[in-house]
Amino acid sequence: SNHNGTNVGATRGVAGILNNSFDFENDESDVVNLTDISNISDVDEFGLSLWVNPEVMQSTDIFIAQSTVGASDASFILRVDVNGKIDFVLWNQAGGLRQLNSNFGKSASGEWTHILATYDGARVWLFVNDSLSATGTLTGNVRNSAQNITLGSYNNRANFYDGLLDEVFIWNRNITGSEITDLYNNETAISCSKAFGPTITLNSPINAFNTSNQTINFNGTVTSSEGITNVTLFIDGVLNETNSSGINDTDYLFTKTISDGNRNWTYESCNDECTTATRNLQ
């Protein structure tokens, strides 16, 4: 979902890594303030991606945070640490935290750098320019913080960033594998709205379902923040039927009569990108 922010001073329309970016000046106390985003609070997975281009490197500058200085209910912070490195901190509901830091990998000032942090409920990863830079363990849901999410400073207007920010995205799920590469895309940014296809949840039959009944009811839920073009059922890799209704966040049902034997069935759904999910029948 899109969440609008309140821009306090940052210059809009400056050339970014993709289209336009926001230009923050630390001596002018620029900040973009987002209200609390409930759908990333108390979640068991988390993902954060953005491009940064610092004009002046200053220790403890904030790229993005859900925290004030020294807050007891901080959720996450992405910043420059006292050694001039990228520093990411994520807290769980119990107050435990995982802190990861990394070199920029390029000349920090005047260069675009892609930073991605992600959490799967058991481990936190920090990627810089599509390379894994640091990882560590953490368990439990992400802390439900009362702080607003802010770009360019803490929520209480401190530690102001000086430079450009672009393509800032937060997810309530873990980001993995080719998705990370797609976001970096060989040093050429792509729109995050086109980075991921729909999410498919296969409801029934269960995997390795064993039945003598040749009539099978297939059920899968398909969701996407960017809408859905179609959902297609494949049986043994062969297209069987396509539903082009384009209804988002709903169950797609197909009833089919199939012959005995081991089979695999796949749902494919597309918008700008396509995703698939597969199970087996016995």
TrEMBL record:
Residues forming coiled coils: none
UniProt entry tagged with the keyword Disulfide bond: yes
Pfam families with a match to the protein in the record: Big_7, Laminin_G_3
Record keywords, A-Z: Disulfide bond, Signal
The keyword Signal is assigned to this record: yes
Domain (LamG-like jellyroll fold): residue spans on this chain: 44-178
Name of the protein: LamG-like jellyroll fold domain-containing protein
